[in-house]
Amino acid sequence: MWESQGDSAAGLISSTKLGVQTQEFHQRGSSWYVYKFIMLMPSSVAVNLFIYCVIVSRYVSADIPSDLLIQIAETNFHLHKYPLLSRSAKLNRILYDSRDPDLSKIVMDDLPGGPEAFELASKFCYGIPVDLTAGNISGLRCTAEYLEMTEDLEEGNLIFKTEAFLSYVVLSSWRDSILVLKSCEKLSPWAENLQIVRRCSESIAWKACANPKGIRWSYTGRAAKGSSPKWIEMKDSSPSRNQNQVVPPDWWFEDVSILRIDHFVRVMTAIKVKGMRFELIGAGIMHYASKWLPGLMMNEAAMPADESSNFSNSNSSSSSGGGLHMIVAASKEENTSTTSLQAKDQRMIVESLISIIPQQKDSVTCSFLLRLLRMANMLKVAPALVNELEKRVGMQFEQATLGDLLIPCYEKSETVYDVDLVQRVLEHFLVQEQSESVSPNRESFSEKQMNAKARVARLVDSYLTEVSRDRNLSLTKFQVLAEALPDSARTSDDGLYRAVDSYLKAHPTLSEHERKRLCRVMDCQKLSIDACMHAAQNERLPLRVVVQVLFSEQVKISNALANTALKEGVGVESHQYQPPVLTNRKTLLEGTPQSFQEGWTAAKKDINTLKFELETVKTKYLELQNDMENLQKQFDKLMLKQKHTSPWTSGWKKLSKLTKITDNHHHHIAPQIPTPEEPHTRKTTRRWRNSIS
After folding, report:
1. What membrane topology was assigned to this protein in its record (predicted)?
2. Residue 534 burial (CB < 10 Å; 0-12/13-18/19+)?
3. What's the whole-number mean pLDDT along residues 648-655?
């Protein structure tokens, strides 16, 4: 379609200006000489002058010596003024501005394309045919622009011919567009200003987005490895075979991946504008990263790190298996092997890839995002891009694996792994889930969200189990990460119990209060029978937690027995006989894991033992409660007794005794000495007693 039958398009151009023709350029060392120079005189009789060049101290000894030396970098060109001045406006201006007619040396170190491009331009000026290819056209076009070889000096000058070759030959070919764009890497900013990069990028994007069924395609980049697309050369296959050949949708990945990162970004941006599917764009980005960031895809790689951190920057395995990964300190030789220039280039690649990742979810894998986040932290990428990448990871956090989540802490920190990073990613995940739950189609997402939260909960529990073995991990960080998820996310707290037990093993010096605080993160009622059996015998747990575990287990057994009795009653009503022992065992086994079913006999004995111990604990608790009540009663009696024996109370008792004695005395005297004033006396006495009492 747009692929040429040959390897690459090429063309021959030459100067037809009447004046000079040269048959050969010759190089000796680092200098170029005109070997055979023929000057065509305007008269009818042509004078052919053959000049044989002899090198003597980098000068030409001949009948018509060269009168102009052009130096580009370390290469010298011994040429003649007339052929060059007739086609280059810049050289004319340099000689005119110098005010020196005998000027014989011009230095052009800033000439784009270097000596190779200037050699072709010089040959064109001398009338020697120049072979235009995809490899030299961009440099020659920039050189022509630099030398100002326009149509004002001569019709069909170098700018016109190189521009025509670019527009009509290069941009119509996939292979040539890739090669020209690759050759523009050394021509900045000339290639940008001349729109060569833009035109090649749009040409590549248009061809990549076209229907692959009608494409005659061939591999133009480096050899593919492994399971990469099987690139087929057109010239090595028959036409019938090419017509039946199925073109894979990623046929353009390998070609585009040879470009420099800034040109790759231009191509991918143009492809995105053309409307290509975001899954293919993401796959192309991952393919490019695998070639230019080899440490991104390696299972383990030594990377620079500070000596005080006690670990090297290594990529962990992507598997979710257990076991604490070994962290080995990096040597000084490894630290110095990665130069600052390489780190700068890698940082630019990572930042560019982050900026062009499609915004749609699942455009790239979560594993790729986490590995990219690891490199971004290691290379100290801009915080805004790191934050954006963390949000992208949070959008598909349920797809992550434990190996990718174990990201070392590259800053000066006491912890081995970056727990704060995982905490931030988890917060982004929860915010994303919350925004989806309030969306109009939230009913269709409810079950999916619950499954995602359950997967994230298992992942966080496994992560906590790994990082809990770090002795420098604070209790606050562990507790905050464990309590970040809502209670509904975990149907079972067995994974959280393993993390708590692992943390208690690695931190044996925790106080009783800290252990109680740590155990608050798990719910004893969500533990399985296996976890309850282990917790009942775990000496590291606080006694209060053990009692809660035993109580919750007793409640579970009671509920299981109640459900069994209910099922038995329903069976009797339906006149279906079921052996009570088998029914009880079957009902209990349905709520237990497979490991418990295999050892049912031993587990049943353990459950009976735990029930007996629970009853014993309850009995002791009641006895202690009765003893407490008796002690309280005795204490109350002592308090009352102390109140009655106070000095004020004893004074009142003495007054009451004196009153009783006085009354008795009056009762004895009254019958012997009756007086007429007796009623008055009694009334007075009663009034006095009333006042006393």
Report:
1. Peripheral membrane protein
2. middle
3. 57
